[in-house]
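Data deposition worksheet. Section B asks for the primary sequence of the deposited chain exactly as it was used as input, without tags or linkers unless they were present during the calculation. Section C holds the resulting structure in token form. Section D is free text for depositor observations; keep each observation to a single sentence. Incomplete worksheets are returned to the depositor.
Section A, Depositor: J.P.
Section B:
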Amino acid sequence: MEALRDEVRRVADRLNLSVHIVMDEENSIIKVYADADMLRRARAGMRDVLELAYTTAEHHPYWGIAYNAAEILNILLERWDGSSDLSRDEIDELEWRASELKNAIEKLK
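Section C:
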């Protein structure tokens, strides 16, 4: 993986790109970010979590927890930079998803 990381760095240098490379050797993943602050990186990771939540079968015992937690985080990350406050509808959705999250946890007991 180090060789791949080094090659990505060489390509980025050749193209005059400033990149941040994150290696997750445990899961064999390399992520390359160009001009991305922590919020953008979090949003990119959130898309991975949402994809898992959307594609996992609803009968999986953890689906309800993953799905509703991901949706809550997604709403919050979209408003994280403070460019606009949460709308009443978004707050209502957060409350509803929190109750669904609690119900999903109760089912595990």
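Section D:
The longest helix spans residues 88-108.
Residues 60 and 66 are 10 Å apart (CA to CA).
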